[in-house]
Amino acid sequence: MRITVFGATGGTGTAVCREAVRRGHEVTAVVRDAARLPGELRDKVDVVVADVMDPAAVESAVAGRDAVMSCLGTRTGRAPTTVHTDGATSIITGMRAAGTRRLLVVSAAAPYPDPGDDLLGRYVAKPLVSRILANPMKDVVRADGVVAGATGIDWTIVRPPRLMDGPPRGAYRLGLDRTPPRARTIRRADLAGAMLDLADDPKSVGHVAWVAN
């Protein structure tokens, strides 16, 4: 596949780029600062320095691609932010202009209680995270609404629990529109593998993909 990754210098974006390269995909990594991309990836991906908030720049980066992956994050801590919402809006606008349809967006599980949650997750962990990170989580929820309402886009919202670093465990659990039981953490490397699998899975189009180790 020919893949464009936004947020490629973040933890998840870097993991997606690494796994995509390992699988032999053609990767375009869209970054604000090329120096922040790990050195071993710079010669293996097409690095594009661009502002994700500029739909014209997005259009150029996604034209002719089979899938677009948004791994955007915010470094504002608990402060109010619109990075996810504005990024999703710009990416969708650029994709429509380029005629590119397949979009996968990394969301978060914390703002969304689910029947599959255990008691600890539903009544303790998720409410606590949503309260501590209230502003970033509100932005995630708004962005999810933008993506889910995007006509002409074959979207999948990927909703992981707490993200962990480290080597992949080599397996993940997936639930479409429902979280797997006891979904508490996932390695970023396994999330990357899940996103690449989902990109090529038509059954996930128009659905929320909950993933966990």
From TrEMBL:
Q: InterPro entries, from UniProt?
A: NAD(P)-bd_dom (IPR016040), NAD(P)-bd_dom_sf (IPR036291), Polyketide_Oxido-like (IPR051606)
Cited Gene3D superfamilies: NAD(P)-binding Rossmann-like Domain
The superkingdom of the source organism is: Bacteria
Domain NAD(P)-binding residue range list: 7-202
GO molecular function list: biliverdin reductase [NAD(P)H] activity; riboflavin reductase (NADPH) activity
Q: What SUPFAM superfamilies has UniProt attached to this entry?
A: NAD(P)-binding Rossmann-fold domains
One Pfam family cited in the UniProt record for this chain: NAD_binding_10
Protein name, per record = NAD-dependent epimerase/dehydratase family protein
Q: Which organism is it from?
A: Actinomadura logoneensis
Species classification = Bacteria, Bacillati, Actinomycetota, Actinomycetes, Streptosporangiales
